[in-house]
Amino acid sequence: MNAFEIIGGKKLKGEIIPQGAKNEALQILSAVLLTEEKITISNIPDIKDVNKLIELLGDLGVTVERLNKDTYTFEAKNINLDFFQSDVFKAKGGGLRGSIMIVGPLLARFGKAAIPKPGGDKIGRRRLDTHFLGFEKLGAKFIYDQKKEFFNVDATNLQGTYILLDEASVTGTANIVMAAVLAKGTTTIYNAACEPYLQQLCKMLNRMGAKISGIGSNLLTIEGVTKLGGTEHRMLPDMIEIGSFIGLAAMTESEITIKDVQYDELGVIPEVFKKLGIKLERRGDDIYIPSQKHYVIDTFIDGSILTIADSPWPGFTPDLLSIVLVVASQARGSVLIHQKMFESRLFFVDKLIDMGAQIILCDPHRATVNGIDKKYQLRGISMTSPDIRAGVSLLIAALSAEGKSTIYNIEQIERGYQDIDTRLRALGAQIKRIDGAGPSH
């Protein structure tokens, strides 16, 4: 187990460039399987979950060429469908939640696919029913091997249809869109997710020759085509990193400029941080956060306590709620954090309480944060990262805390954040990576 050792309480300063969007990458990379022509993708984040998917594509027979640090070409001309039944695929596919995303394009192009029961974050039940029900509506048949925990899928005759999704799942919508673009006839998806990542996927598919309308809304119409071609695509910057860096600046009283953020694609994210009292300025396509000693949480107009809750886009993304919670702990005022979508994402608050934060965990979905207004610093402790987003929240807390903190299980953080320690050191953070470390308890 590896760890980060952090000496906190230091003001940071400088510019930081967000990586490409992890959640977009898993969809866009899977889409290369829809054509045998070459696709060039840039601004790919160099992180474990994405690299695992690129490796999996290579194992499937995709010709992968790395042009530079963040740009690759993919050519899915000779796909080995027998690879699905191999133990290698079982091991690799089962260890990566993103592997579910290759099912839609493979069903569309080859009429069959297989997938082991996926793994991923420990943040509560994350059902895959939306994906499978959508595929079934299009005509796919599933055979689940309970003993091997493996799904085999037959989709030799996909037909366009009307689909009302049971939840506005981003990955579910993306997977069904990729299956539908080559199905016969017209598919209508209602209650579709409309996140910028999904809009990016739909625009890319249209450049490849797909016929998708309603992009950016929750009603997508897809006219099936017989073939798709190659294209070039550049990924958006990662909005979760951007939000994390806003929170980091506030907690550490740092003056930070976040570069090239594609501001218009950030939705309500800047406004939510402003509700916590954080000053931030848009400068062209950059966000400038000045150093500020105090920030005061808004109340509702009638004076009642502010609630920040996650909801499907264009609502506030659940991936930033843990960041908001940490940042609120040092604000002046109180806020109720309501995590609606995942039931165990708030279970890291015990570590923040150990550091001196005043947080009441009401139930698995809600926490009340009483901001201590920086009257005293959080104190450094040893802790273990339970998942990607909680890990970065704890990292931000440690950078603002007095003394030394050690965060174990940083593999979770590194699944989603590229070279995070190197980039933070460039801002003046005192952080080092310790390989092979283990908690004493």
Attribute tags:
alpha+beta; four-stranded mixed sheet; 29% helix; globular
Q: What does this protein look like?
A:
- With 441 residues, the protein is α+β, with helices and mostly antiparallel strands.
- 29% of the residues lie in helices and 24% in strands.
- It has 14 helices and 23 strands.
- The protein has helices spanning 22-31, 48-60, 87-94, 103-110, 129-137, 170-180, 196-207, 239-251, 269-275, 321-328, 349-355, 388-400, 411-414, 420-426, and strands spanning 3-7, 13-16, 38-42, 63-68, 71-75, 112-116, 141-145, 150-154, 162-164, 186-190, 211-213, 219-223, 231-234, 255-258, 281-283, 286-289, 306-309, 332-338, 359-363, 366-372, 382-384, 404-408, 430-434.
- The protein has a four-stranded mixed β-sheet with strand order 21-22-1-23.
- β15 (281-283) and β16 form a beta hairpin.
- α1 runs parallel beside α7 and α10 (321-328) runs parallel beside α12 (388-400).
- The radius of gyration is 22 Å and the shape is globular.
- The two termini are 13 Å apart.
- Residues 119-126 have low confidence and may be disordered.
- The active site is at 121 (proton donor).
- Residues 8-421 form the Enolpyruvate transferase domain.
- It is found in: Cytoplasm.
- It holds the Pfam family EPSP_synthase.
- Pathway: Cell wall biogenesis; peptidoglycan biosynthesis.
